[in-house]
Amino acid sequence: MSQPPMEEWHVERQIVDLSKKRGKAKNRRRGSQQDGRTKLKREDVPMASGEPAAAPADVALSVRELTVSLPEGMERAHAVENISFDLKRGQILCIIGESGSGKSVTANAIMGLLPKVIRVTSGAIHLNGTNIVGLAPEKLRSLRGRVVSMIFQDPLSALNPLMTVGAQIEEVMAAHDVGTPASRRSRAIDLLIEVGLPDPQLMYHQYPFRLSGGQRQRVMIAMALALEPAILIADEPTTALDVTTQAQILQLIRDIQRRKGMSVMFITHDFGVVAEIADHVVVMEKGHCVEQGSAAQVLKSPNHLYTRRLIAAVPHLTGKDRVPSEAGERASILKVECLAKTYRSGSALFRTQRIVPAVNGVSFDLTSGRTLGVVGESGSGKSSLGRLLIKLMECDGGSILFEGRDIAGLSEAEFRPLRPNIQMIFQDPFASLNPRSTVGQILTVGPVAHGMPYDKACERARELLSHVGLDAGAFERYPHEFSGGQRQRVGIARALMFKPKLLIADEAVSALDVSIQAQILKLLDQIQRETGVSMIFITHDLRVASQICDEIAVMHRGQIVERGPPSQIFLDPKSTYTRELVAAIPGEQPQSMPEHAEYGGQHKGGETL
Amino acid sequence: MSAFLVNRLLQSIVLLVIVSIIGFTVLNLMPGGPLAQFGLDPGMTQKDVERLAAQLGLNRPLWMQYLDWAWRLLQGDWGHSFRDGSSVLTVIGRHLLATLLLMGTSTAFAIGVGAWIGIRGATHRYSLFDYCATVGAMVALSVPTFWFGLIGIYIFTLKLGWVPAGNMYTIGDGSVLDYLHHLILPSLVLSLVHVAIWSRYMRTATLDALSQDFVKTARAKGVSERRILLKHVIGNALLPMITLAGMQLPSVLTGALVTETVFTWPGMGRLFLDSLGYSDYPVVMGLLIFSAILVLLGNLIADIVIATVDPRIRLA
After folding, report:
1. Beta bridge partners of A372
2. Which uninterrupted H or E stretch holds B238?
3. N or C, fewer C-beta in 10 Å, chain A?
């Protein structure tokens, strides 16, 4: 494909590069190619900056004063500016930062995979002693997968759906002309065994969609290991996984890294993960490296304000119960009994039906003004439960008593007048707001449809916007003008427009950075204390649940396996599953992160394959 | 899979019945009808016309005519043309090959060239080539086909004299070369629109596939750009194209009304137009059912092909 799109972009460089063989250069050009300036610098060994030209032998990867510029018109001129760090052989280096901090750009620069419009403008990246900045695309290609390989965040989309697992692993070897078809095949099967996948012979012929998230990530790791690279770059490899699976994958990466003496650069936004596996930590903020040091040092005594803020924002298992808001009437607002929902697909007529009990006999009750957390892994039925409660979906059995009235059997028309009482806050603040409506329209359309006069709705909307911490001007603006956290505030304001009695928050903070997460949780807490609204807080993150819930229900395969106050769930879990779940939380024991900064230690559960 | 096929078959039958009822009703509700032409004929009395109507069964109530027609169709009798009395299937057969030749050539050409332009446009996004392809496609889509046909005839026949202006072959010649000579202009004109459509869809599908994470994975593995394109991008980009190809299938056999008329090509499109003009209802109904079956078949084939090539559907 050798795509040089945007030929305009290259014109300038071609003039500078006249000395180069035009024909070859033109066809093989990639975005990460040097401009004339850096090329000059590179030939002029040692580096002009006075840095040591090549890193010492125990350093596998050395990044020196790296600056990557963004195209004009972006919010800042540089994706990363002047960052330097070393990855020592046989160590795990964690790069941590919030979204937009430039951590992924750094990884892509090292892989030579930057999009064409983003270029390394200065600095050096030494891979095993060779500077790869400005290396010819073909040379870079030969390094990728062989010397340095990479795994990604979402293991489903990172695998080609049309190719078998085996073929995708073999492709790495074929791309570098290693081995014969037969030897590649046996190597692929060995790799599948090595990453702990069951029945490797069968797995070899499987297509990715057949595997679970954790299994897919294992396949990615197998692929990355195929040619025994010196360096593995892991870009948020566990962010999309459940907490127990995350614990297993972290364990696997750690094991393999030790066994092979590999060097790992691990990108994450989660200090829990850092505590779990890092030897060395680099903290990035807005394209700058603000702090680096050993894991123990950065976690225990962070120097930079930003690091401290980040660590402080990480939700911890409090293990302490929440102080309930001042006592009012403690009536039960919601009582759910034996609620059931079964998904059916296929056709009963042709006996291809698949039956999945998503919610299976769930019962709980919620006192007004309190928060119930519903936690569970993906597929546990927690989101289905939320949809049943707000009647976005009909249940198959059981009852939902809302203020004493059974709403489970109500028709849509009968339930409609009750809708204002139960409102929902959605997970994705980007997808859940109509991009073509102003915030004002988004907030007022619901109440107006329910008969509130427009003037009054506007007045309330402005009031609520300032209440959730947005300025009054937000009313006239469109969702795209806001950041993720601000949009979630709009989402909360929207839910509050009706003065609801019950709020259902489905993963309301999961898409947000930790520091924003903390703010939104605080806002929800404050709103509850002020309005006395009851809340059902659905989340996969036990740490978040422990921050905000009076009581937590743990869901597993459609059932509530345990219910109790946070202190019970986290300190004295009664069910095995809850124990596994709590143990799998990265870098975490109640009330104590610093003490457990050393690789998790004793509290690892669910790491069986 | 077999359950799926049975399901689709049942749906298709219901659809065919509905389509035929609507077609039959609308056709017969139109003013005029097959006997209207005789009203102006001084040699025919009112009695003659009535006798003819009785003979053709046109004096019965509409529902009875429909049931009679449908019952015969079920037995394989598609009826007889009012014009020359030959069976509808024979009439269709006479025109089918001509259309297949024209449409087959132009569709194959359009898919090949359109896909190539689309892929190249996507891999060389915003390049001069891409801009030209985009503008070209817009022009081809917005200018009516008959205009291209007439301009083509003006330039290549009248001014340059390279190709004949119409017909499928020269009477008295009929060699393969002669057929091809006649085929060039109409098939090129016809494929213009299809190249435009295909290149636009293919460009979008390729860009979509290129932006997928697995392409990045392949790059991270050190796979060459060429292999990434062939092995990862095109396969995934072609999946949505299969549905489009399925929708094109009927037109390959039912022909192009305008182009066949402009180039006096003796295909299905012209047959339909002529039959409508002569109120030759049995032939019109035959063509209607024929194309309805093809539409259903085309979609079915597309679904089967997708299910075969996409493991997510094949094995799920």
Report:
1. A536, A551
2. helix B234-254
3. C
> How many other CB atoms are found less than 10 A from the CB of residue A71?
12
pLDDT of residue A92: 94
The answer to whether B219 contacts A113, with C-beta atoms less than 8 Å apart, is yes
Whole-number Å distance between alpha carbons of A456 and B158: 74
Report chain A residues whose CB lies below 8 A from the CB of B1: none
Contact call for residues A546 and A578 (beta carbons, < 8 A): no
The amino acid at residue B246 is G
The pTM of the whole model exceeds 0.80 = no
| Residue range A474-522, pLDDT digits in tens | 888 888 888 888 888 999 999 999 889 999 998 888 878 888 888 889 8
For an interface test with B, the pick among A140, A171, A231 (most B C-beta atoms closer than 10 Å) comes out as A171
Determine whether the interchain pair A152/B216 forms a contact, defined as Cβ–Cβ distance below 8 Å. yes
pLDDT band (50, 70, 90) for residue B132: very high
A472 burial level (CB within 10 Å; 0-12, 13-18, 19+): exposed
Q: Chain B, 192-221: which have a CB under 8 Å from a chain A CB? A: 212-214, 216-221
Residue A134 falls in which region: left (phi positive, over 0), alpha (psi -120 to 50) or beta: left
DSSP secondary structure code for residue B174 in this structure = -
Which of A13-22, A119-128, A297-306, B125-134 has the least mean pLDDT? A13-22
- The dihedrals phi and psi of B210, each to the nearest 5 degrees, come to -65, -30
Contact: A152, B213; criterion CB under 8 Å = yes
Cis before B186? omega within 30: no
**Nearest by CB to A5, which of B125, B220, B316?**
B125
**A160–B236 CB contact, under 8 Å:** yes
Of the candidates B124, B214, B220, the beta carbon closest to that of A149 is on: B220
CA distance B72 to B68: 6
Counting beta carbons within 10 angstroms of the beta carbon of residue A431, is it exposed (0 to 12), middle (13 to 18) or buried (19 or more)?
exposed
ipTM of the complex: 0.80
B290 strand-pairing partners: none
How would you classify residue A319: left for phi > 0, otherwise alpha for psi between -120 and 50, otherwise beta? left
Per residue in B53-63, pLDDT (tens digit) is 888 888 888 88
Amino acid making up residue A332: S
CB under 8 A, 24+ apart: contacts of A344-352? A347/B3, A347/B7, A349/B3, A350/B3, A350/B6, A350/B7, A352/B3
Strands (E), A403-488: 405-406, 422-425
pLDDT at residue A282 above 90? yes
Chains A, B: CB pairs < 8 Å: 107
Provide, as residue numbers in chain B, all residues whose Cβ is less than 8 Å from the Cβ of A142: 222
How far apart, in whole angstroms, are the C-alpha atoms of residue A493 and residue A456? 15
Please write down the HEC assignment for all residues of A174-229.
Answer: HHCCCCCHHHHHHHHHHHHHHCCCCCHHHHHCCCHHHCCHHHHHHHHHHHHHCCCC
Beta carbons of B213 and A141 less than 8 Å apart? no
Residues A418, A502: Cα–Cα separation, whole Å: 11
> Could you tell me which chain A residue has the CA closest to the CA of B122?
A5
Cβ atoms A126, B273 nearer than 8 A: no
Interchain proximity A6–B126, CB inside 8 Å: yes
Q: Tell me whether residues B232 and A7 touch, CB distance under 8 A.
A: no
- Mind listing the pLDDT tens digit for each residue in A226-257? 999 999 999 989 888 888 888 889 999 999 99
* A119-135 pLDDT per residue, tens: 888 999 998 888 988 88
Structural contact between residues B258 and B146, judged by C-beta atoms closer than 8 angstroms = yes
